[in-house]
Amino acid sequence: MTDDPRMQLSDKTVNKPGAPRARHLTLSLNNPTIRAILWQIGLGLVVILAGWYLAGNTMANLARLSIASGFGFLDRESGVQIGESLIATGPRDSYGDIFIVGLLNTLKVSGVGIVLATILGVLLGMARLSSNWLVARFAATYVEAVRNVPLLLQLFIWYALLTEGLPGPRQAEPLIPGVDIFLSNRGLKFPAPADDPVWAWVAVLFAVGVLATLAISAWNRKRQLSTGQRLPMTPIGLGLILGLPLAFLALSGGGAMDVPVLQGFNFRGGMTLSPEFAALLFGLTLYTAAFIGEIVRSGILAVPKGQTEAATALGLSRSTAMRLVILPQALRVIIPPTTSQFLNLTKNSSLAVAIGYPDFVAVANTAINQTGQAVEGVLSIMIVYLVISLALSAFMNWYNRRVALVER
Q1: Which class for 362: exposed (0-12), middle (13-18), buried (19 or more C-beta within 10 A)?
Q2: Percentage of the chain surpassing pLDDT 70?
Q3: How many other C-beta atoms lie within 10 A of the C-beta of residue 345?
Q4: What is the pTM (predicted TM-score) of this model?
Q5: Which of 59-73, 215-229, 379-393 has the lowest mean pLDDT?
Q6: How far apart are CA 391 and CA 363, in angstroms?
Q7: What is the overall mean pLDDT for the chain?
Q8: Whether residue 24 has pLDDT greater than 60
Q9: pLDDT average, residue stretch 281-288
Q10: In angstroms, rounded to a whole number, what is the distance separating the alpha carbons of residues 82 and 80?
Q11: How far from 279 is each of 109, 153, 169, 248, 268, CA to CA, in Å?
Q12: Would you list the domain boundaries of the chain?
């Protein structure tokens, strides 16, 4: 102890209640923080060592079998002809090109399936709460039946119905008299826009209509908050999104169409909705919609009954109260589990390989069988589905924050 009184602390000062105390990190295994850090370091080392061992073992086996590793095979000619694709493809295209085709096919069936499953799921959820006994029982029976039948079995059933239950192309009759739309076991054939500049302008006007509708809708919400008045967005949106392209088509005299024509044993021209795509889309949509219906039902029931009574007291109809009062409050309960169902639908689309639809998994399997690049093919599948899932989750999280009710 020093004799300088300025360098001494009395016991009263040290033990004085409320006086600040110095915090020291004790380097001891009894400290929970130290133990947590050590456990994380140890687990990280185990993961690194396991990965190093597996990677080294894999490279040694590939070298022993004289199989080249790496993604250089993506530049090689594939020799694969994909029957259904959004972009032109042929046997001379590289493996990288057919991977893109498979990715686009996966995104196509997943995107359309998510939209249709959401619409059908919302209708099912509200139907289960309907006061009409027949509607409520039908919705409940559908949900319980579809949810408890394996998805793969449902895909097989739909594929069998579409391929065996429909007539051949020669026996197919127009679905609508005078309109070149044919349904056969080769798929649904219908006219498609031909190579005409008019359709490019139609697409531009459609995009302009969508952007204008979004801008007017945002302005309309702000106007409602400030004045209490709201413009009818449904006719305005339909007028902009559909009215502008249709008006341009009428003024320009219409665009050229590619019409399906029966030649030999199949139709040529037009656009095709293949039985494989239809079976996969129907199966994914109906299966996922059953789960979304239950989520919507639980979300609506989570809203206090007082909200419904208040809406009724204000003179709102049942449909208006559901649209403006109940569903906006139920979204905070509905969106998180619905996001999981969207992810499940996207990942379940990999079952397409069972019915012959060329999605990314099917294309990657073909590449693996032809090149022997199993590690690279499986890694590509994992990366693609990981990126799609993370992007979809990020979008749904953003939407969830946007519609969340803020308590003031």
Answers
A1: buried
A2: 90
A3: 25
A4: 0.78
A5: 59-73
A6: 22
A7: 84
A8: no
A9: 94
A10: 6
A11: 11, 11, 18, 36, 22
A12: 32-66, 95-163+273-403
Q: What is the rounded CA–CA span in Å between residue 221 and residue 318? A: 22
Q: Which residue has the tokens 């952007």?
A: 211
Give yes or no for a contact between 69 and 62, defined as CB atoms under 8 angstroms apart.
yes
Residue type, 203: A
Alpha-carbon span 364 to 353, nearest angstrom: 10
- Tell me phi and psi for residue 131, to 5 degrees: -75, -15
Which residue in this structure is represented by tokens 């079998």?
65
pLDDT at 197: 85
Distance CA 316, CA 319 (A): 8
- What is the C-alpha separation between 192 and 177, in angstroms, rounded? 18
pLDDT at 28 over 90: no
Tokens matching residue 156: 């097989």
The 3-class secondary structure across the chain, one letter per residue, is CCCCHHHCCCHHHHCCCCCCCCCCCCCCCCCHHHHHHHHHHHHHHHHHHHHHHHHHHHHHHHHHCCCCCCCHHHHCECCCCCCCCCCCCCCCCEHHHHHHHHHHHHHHHHHHHHHHHHHHHHHHHHHHCCCCHHHHHHHHHHHHHHHCCCHHHHHHHHHHHHHHCCCCHHHCCECCCCCCCEEECCEEEECEECCCHHHHHHHHHHHHHHHHHHHHHHHHHHHHHHHCCCCCHHHHHHHHHHHHHHHHHHHHCCCCEECCEEECCEEECCEEECHHHHHHHHHHHHHHHHHHHHHHHHHHHCCCHHHHHHHHHCCCCHHHHHHHHHHHHHHHHHHHHHHHHHHHHHHHHHHHHHCCCCCHHHHHHHHHHHHCCHHHHHHHHHHHHHHHHHHHHHHHHHHHHHHCCCCC
Q: pLDDT tens for residues 312-366? A: 888 877 778 887 788 888 888 899 999 999 999 999 999 998 988 999 999 999 8
Homologous superfamily assigned to 95-163+273-403: MetI-like (1.10.3720.10)
